């Protein structure tokens, strides 16, 4: 049995970036990382652009101007202004080449075909110059940039339709157990509704990993070997829940051994999630998580999350961790380091009751995990505690 820090380090050292590329439509590339620098095909803005509603002026020494027309956003109208002339203009509209400043409409008095402005302006006032955001041929976004809604909007504004991004891993979730049935079926004696696969699927989706398949295996050795052989051969990451302990019907460990999966570690000194397995088969990473739901989800956030980030070539690969002030008095059971379900809010954290590894009720309202070291059994109100912030 190894320590938590040893387990994390082994995951970091054994999982390598995929470094594979794929092309995605920009609007579907959210959460991906750019595989290469993106160069702007245009100037942005592509023309001198009005920064607000007002009046475009050809400046002169007087505060009065002759109004000769109007330019709206999208117009191809290109009036020529002489000194002392102005046009009505709107935000985003092209500024005539002969205009050299824009006065906001709130500081203008209009009298038929004449306007009066409150003060003299400097040249270029309220005009967005060509290429203010980015110039044609310059780098718009650098390689390894994570594509967010803002960056997607930015790329689309440049007329870019497709981008080359790092390919995300293909992932298989495997659940084991004769006792598991699907929600909607009659809950007969001895059966429970299966939740781990969809829970982990949701966790992956929230992190924007969508290439995921789910496989269910009965407690049968040959069927377990057959299913695991298939998913290990066809995926970058395999997540198994249940069947990794040493019971008579826990076949996962034996099946992985038959498939010659290299064991990196098995069992971590922690609670929940002691019977955690991590192994490799060529380039495929395999995690066998405990069957208890809260333990499975905790191991996902602490270890599988690291593997996912490493596969994407990301350096900052653990969930954010902060020091938060406890608003709970809490006694920890047992002598193992423990991840405690908690609610974090504005620098304070409440450690919740109901920490059993089989219980999701408490996890369902948590947004954080408080880490309790081996030597600490009691948290007092006001203590500062290590708090892992979960994705939301």
Automatic annotation (TrEMBL):
It holds the Pfam family MoeA_N. Gene3D superfamilies: MoaB/Mog-like domain (3.40.980.10), MoeA, C-terminal, domain IV (2.40.340.10), Molybdopterin biosynthesis moea protein, domain 2 (3.90.105.10), Molybdopterin biosynthesis moea protein, domain 3 (2.170.190.11). Its cofactor is Mg(2+). Residues 172-310 form the MoaB/Mog domain. Its EC number is 2.10.1.1. Pathway: Cofactor biosynthesis; molybdopterin biosynthesis. Catalyzes the insertion of molybdate into adenylated molybdopterin with the concomitant release of AMP. This is Molybdopterin molybdenumtransferase.
């Amino acid at each position: 049995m190894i320590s938590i820090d040893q387990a994390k380090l082994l995951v970091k050292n054994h999982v390598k970036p995929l470094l594979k590329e794929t092309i995605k439509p920009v609007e579907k590339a959210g959460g991906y990382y750019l595989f290469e620098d993106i160069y702007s095909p245009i100037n942005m803005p592509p023309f001198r652009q009005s920064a607000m509603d007002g009046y475009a002026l050809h400046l002169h020494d007087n505060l009065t101007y002759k109004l000769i027309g109007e330019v709206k956003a999208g117009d191809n109208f290109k009036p020529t202004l002489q000194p002392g002339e102005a046009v009505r203009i709107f935000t985003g509209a092209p500024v005539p080449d002969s205009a050299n400043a824009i006065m906001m409409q709130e500081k203008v008095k209009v009298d038929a075909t004449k306007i009066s402005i409150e003060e003299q302006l400097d040249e270029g006032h309220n005009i967005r110059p060509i290429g203010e955001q980015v110039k044609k041929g310059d780098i718009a976004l650098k390689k390894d940039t994570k594509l967010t809604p803002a960056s997607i909007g930015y790329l689309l504004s440049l007329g870019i339709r497709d981008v080359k991004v790092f390919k995300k891993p293909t992932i298989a979730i495997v659940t084991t157990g004769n006792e598991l049935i699907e929600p909607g079926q009659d809950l007969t004696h001895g059966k429970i509704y299966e939740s781990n696969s969809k829970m982990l699927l949701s966790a992956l989706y929230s992190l924007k990993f969508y290439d995921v398949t789910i496989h269910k295996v009965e407690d049968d050795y040959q069927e377990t070997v057959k299913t695991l052989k298939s998913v290990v051969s066809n995926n970058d990451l395999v997540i198994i829940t249940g069947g990794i302990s040493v019971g008579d019907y826990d076949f996962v460990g034996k099946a992985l051994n038959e498939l010659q999966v290299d064991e990196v570690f098995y069992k971590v000194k922690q609670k929940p999630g002691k019977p955690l397995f991590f192994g490799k088969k060529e380039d495929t990473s395999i995690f066998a998580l405990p069957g208890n739901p809260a333990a499975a989800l905790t191991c996902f956030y602490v270890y599988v999350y690291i593997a996912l980030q490493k596969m994407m070539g990301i350096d900052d690969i653990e969930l954010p961790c902060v020091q938060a002030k406890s608003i709970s008095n809490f006694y920890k059971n047992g002598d193992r380091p423990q991840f405690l379900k908690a609610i974090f809010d504005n620098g304070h954290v409440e450690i919740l009751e109901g920490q059993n590894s089989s219980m999701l009720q408490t996890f369902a309202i948590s947004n954080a995990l408080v880490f309790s070291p081996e030597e600490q059994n009691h948290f007092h109100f006001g203590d500062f505690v290590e708090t892992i912030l979960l994705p939301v």
